[in-house]
Amino acid sequence: MAEEDDATVRILQSLRGKICEAKNLGPLSGPNRQRDLCTFCTISLDQEEVFRTKVFDKSVSPFYGEDFYFEIPRPFQCLSFYVYAKSVFQRDLPVGKVSIRKDDLAKYSGKEHWCSLHPVDPNSEVQGKVHLEMRLNEVITENGSVGQHLVVRIIECQGLPLISGQNCDPYATVSLVGPASSYSKKSHFQVEEEDIEKLEIKVDLWNNENLAQDVFLGETRVHVKILRNDHIHKAWYLLQPKGNGSKSKSDDLGSLRLKLTYIEDTVLPSAFYTPLCNLLLKSPDVKPISASAAHILGDICRERHEAVLPTVRLLLHHNRFVPFVSAVAALELENTQEANTIFRGNSLATRCIDDMMKIVGKNYLAVTLKPVIDEICESNKTCEIDPVKLKEGDNVVVNKENLQGYVQKVFSSITQSSSSCPPLMCDVFRSLRNLACKRFSADPHVQYSAVSSFVFLRFFAVAVLSPHSFQLRSHHPDPEISRTLTLISKTIQTLGSWGSLSKKMSSFKETYMYDFFKSFQEDKCIEKVKKFLDEISTNVSKESSVLEDAVVLKEGEVQKRAQGRKRLGKKNFKKRWLRLTNRELSYHKHKGKEALCIINVKNIQAVEKLDESAFNRKNMFQVVHCEKLLYVQAGNCVEAGEWLEVLGPVSRCNEGRFSSFHPSNYSGGLWQCCRSPSSSAPGCKPCTT
């Protein structure tokens, strides 16, 4: 948040939900039929795509099962879900769409809905506005009479959509429409005085597609009679669908099951929240803890994202989380009668610790699980061991060996990861262990079950089951891989739980899982689990390893401006693969290729948005570092926000960080934002704090 924004009221928008499945997708027009093509879904804010599922195999009723969450960084009017059929030789073919106006999103909040798909008419998919200037001049005609000369000038366009992820290359055609309609690409017309009342100017905007067919961007119509009183008229006009949006015939295109929650928060200047923050930060010292502000807030708001998550973030930021959660856990243990039921419910203590592990343990998960999860998803070995679900040709012995190999790799990765466990998580686990021992002093196993119930059951097992939810994979795995991960998660959960062998075996309802679990050497597994739990919950103070592996925080395809080139020209922007780890920011020609440039994150001096006017491109940001400015264009507004969100924290504490920046570029001997002639002039806008 920039310093200048600290005194203003802001609106924060976010959207979370799930694209569940489609049903009875209808046939496409032409020779292609839906049943012959693979499909995928996209989410668009107005006409800007911000999310895309992976492609699913041929089916008229595909199950997508993709969760999504993103903050919405700009105003919008309409949220749309598109279903596309994947095409190899041409553009992906739209099957249908579900469009929901922003004002209607509250009706869908928090519940699943089956929504009918409607036709996608390219001529109605418009957004943006155009700035027009119209002049009506008196001229002397060739025969000596006085005539009217109408001149139309297009000053600029704003808010046009990205086409295939890139800025538009627009051009306009201007028509004079009236009793005897005329069409022309010119911008000046001779008009008769008596026709002025009946005429209108129609401006069509198109995107120049070079080799492909040009794309219609929208039209606007203005009556010429507006120039009766004032011979010069300038105004902005919203682009409209062709023919004012005449609706296409709606075939039975099928339906889409969606779950949506749209949240719009009004955020006051930070000073308004100071009394509440101070009250919440005093919570760990309040006795009894149930009378504290944080505990009361957690009890009142049962929805995690309303109160618990923001409270956890606040307490973490001010180093007050451990004393608070220790007090809350102690209160819960007082009301727990049996040692084998500790921390089983969805209590305030378990919700706080769950959220803490997701925030603090994100990199820990990536280091520990991502390599083996990637191997499982990409090698695609069959691991089904349920006799009922075996396919023809499956060998259950081979499948069992595959599954056992994966479980061993995941289990070893976890039990050998104690040195990577964040110190704060260790502090919480140590506190839970001591509290459990104090409450159930006669039970020698409770010191381990108190910790394993979180680190195995609520952290690692959940991440294995749903890697996309923890940013370990970009998409929900396909059904077969998902089934493999489910079997691995079940086994890891049981291996990591603390209890007798007979109790563990009885936790399996399925005979095949019972038989599979018997293949593991229980005693060796118990020793490894015990050693791991001891290492992450003992009193030994542990510092993070300086030599830890680099963790990939974010990567993806972007457009990067070639450094040191001229301001204009498409070829100055090139597709690159941008990759950020906790150590360095690099870009590559393609994913997996050698880095073309590496920037140490310690050398980053600022990361800020760039004005659209700088290069006439949306969703741009700049990375200021020791060498040069790095200008980057993200694929959409959400992606740009995510890059800024992740780049900020890794560089915010760097020495020599700038306090101000230039929101535009330096060209023609001037900074285009403040018109300063010196290329080394200090920034003209405060940096994000």
TrEMBL record:
GO terms for molecular function: GTPase activator activity; zinc ion binding. The keyword Zinc applies. Keywords: GTPase activation, Metal-binding, Repeat, Zinc, Zinc-finger. SMART domains: BTK, C2, PH, RasGAP. Residues 551-652 form the PH domain. One of its GO terms (biological process) is intracellular signal transduction. The keyword Transcription does not apply. Residues 303-497 form the Ras-GAP domain. InterPro entries: C2_dom (IPR000008), C2_domain_sf (IPR035892), PH-like_dom_sf (IPR011993), PH_domain (IPR001849), Ras_GTPase (IPR039360), RasGAP_CS (IPR023152), RasGAP_dom (IPR001936), Rho_GTPase_activation_prot (IPR008936). Residues 1-115 form the C2 domain. PANTHER family: RAS GTPASE-ACTIVATING PROTEIN 2, RAS GTPASE-ACTIVATING PROTEINS. This is Ras GTPase-activating protein 2. It comes from Dissostichus eleginoides (Patagonian toothfish).
